[in-house]
Design brief:
- This protein has about 375 residues and is of the alpha/beta class.
- It folds into three domains: about 10-85; about 125-175, no CATH class; about 175-360, Rossmann fold (3-Layer(aba) Sandwich).
- The protein contains ten helices and twelve strands.
- The chain has helices at about 10-35, 40-50, 60-70, 90-105, 145-155, 200-215, 250-260, 295-310, 325-340, 350-360, and strands at about 75, 85, 115-130, 170-175, 180-185, 220-225, 230-235, 270-275, 280-285, 285-290, 315-320, 340-345.
- A six-stranded mixed beta sheet has the order 7-6-5-8-11-12, with helices on both faces. The chain has a two-stranded antiparallel sheet with strand order 1-2. The chain has a two-stranded antiparallel sheet with strand order 3-4.
- Helix 1 packs across helix 4, helix 6 packs parallel to helix 10 (about 350-360) and helix 7 (about 250-260) runs parallel beside helix 8.
- The chain is flat, with a radius of gyration of 27 Å.
- The protein starts with 11 loop residues before the first helix and ends in a 7-residue tail after the last helix.
- It holds the Pfam family VWA_2.
- It comes from Microscilla marina ATCC 23134.
- This is VWFA domain-containing protein.
Length: about 375
């Protein structure tokens, strides 16, 4: 059969841009898995290209690397012999990619805070509900248009009269501010048994960080990692986070989280803890007390005591348990009951949705 078949014409520059965007998505996933090691991520990308033909004769991995440099995603480290590192633009891109992957089609909303409570009060956004004026209402909340209309209806169109009964007030939504501490377990068990648990934890942390900084700018998020000890890291450090040869010192993590939240002025405070194992370590003076073979009575007792302290400080702890061992889940249930917090026994696929739903639920009311 003779004839012509016409297809949509795609200019070469647009095709190359599409190829770059597709490879960039894969590269961002790989560089997260390699804890920010650009060279290793590019090596993995080369291997994937050989196996799955990701590139073409017109646009290859070499072209992609040059575009990464031109567009400011990677650069050669100063004073090094050709070592390539990520830039701040890459770190931001990774967080945005994680937000899209974990939390879906969430859109950025302007304004300060967006955690709704059952109380109405002075807020940044005016609502649509109206009510009669009450003593103590601010003048800025009076709906002049509705009040003038009421005055005309109630008193006619002769001499203008505006009485208190004519006034209507616009209800404004109260926006609570929340301080969150996210604790991430970086003990060795997070990569044991051939399962990479630290990469999903990092993605969730980056997504939560991007969510808060863009949608809830008046909220605070502090990130803690805990192994033998606990220490605070910055949001920009998340892509480079690695698991170490550590035990699990949950006690140190909780103590640091409580110390951070004591300094926060917000009434709404909470702790999210991502872990896959039991507490196996605590510090006694300058010595580490360790027991990785079971739930040690000394470590368990101190951990539960901290759960009680958090409860008294009105700090709920939500535990995201990414392990299915029954005796470990029993410990989490006891810890949660003591703290009166929450626990989710999630796999790696639904970890992000659980954290997002709990964060959005406005955990507690203002006291």
């Amino acid at each position: 059969m003779l004839g012509h078949r016409f297809t949509k014409y795609t200019p070469p520059e647009l095709k190359q841009a599409a190829d770059f965007d597709r490879l960039l998505d894969i590269f961002m996933q790989l560089v997260t898995m390699t804890s920010g090691d650009v060279s290793e991520a590019l090596q993995w990308l080369n291997n994937l290209d050989q196996q799955h033909n990701l590139t073409s004769d017109e646009y290859g991995i070499g072209d992609f690397i040059e575009d990464l440099k031109k567009k400011g995603y990677i650069k050669e480290e100063e004073g090094s012999t050709g070592k390539v590192v990520m830039t701040a633009k890459s770190e931001i891109s990774i967080r945005r990619s994680a937000l899209e992957e974990v939390f879906g089609k969430l859109k950025r909303s302007r304004g300060a805070g967006n955690h709704h409570t059952n109380y109405s009060g002075k807020g940044d956004e005016r609502g649509t509900d109206r009510r009669a004026f009450q003593f103590g209402d601010g003048l800025e909340n009076i709906s002049m248009t509705d009040s003038l209309r009421n005055a005309q209806i109630n008193h006619g169109i002769g001499d203008f009269t505006l009485l208190e009964n004519d006034l209507e007030v616009v209800e404004s939504e109260f926006k609570s501010q929340t301080s969150t501490v996210l604790m991430i377990d970086i003990s060795h068990s997070m990569i044991l048994y051939g399962e990479d648990r630290i990469t999903p934890a990092k993605k969730v942390a980056m997504a939560l960080a991007e969510l808060i900084t863009t949608r809830y700018p008046k909220d605070t998020l502090d990130i803690i990692v805990f192994g033998n000890d606990a220490w605070q890291i910055k949001i920009k450090d998340l892509p480079y986070l690695e698991v170490g040869p550590y035990h699990t010192n949950t006690i140190a993590g909780l103590e640091l989280a409580m110390d951070i939240l004591r300094r926060r002025k917000n009434q709404n405070k909470q702790i999210f803890m991502i872990t896959d194992g039991k507490p196996t370590c605590m510090k006694q003076g300058i010595r580490y007390y360790k027991n990785s073979f079971g739930l040690d009575r000394k470590i368990l007792s101190k951990t539960l005591n901290l759960a009680v302290q958090c409860r008294r400080l009105k700090i709920p702890v939500t535990t995201f348990m990414i392990a299915s061992d029954p005796y470990l889940q029993d410990f989490v249930r006891e810890f949660t009951k003591t703290n009166k917090g929450k626990a989710y026994y999630s796999n790696l696929d639904n970890l992000g949705s659980f954290i997002f739903e709990d964060y959005q639920r406005n955990r507690r009311k203002n006291v």
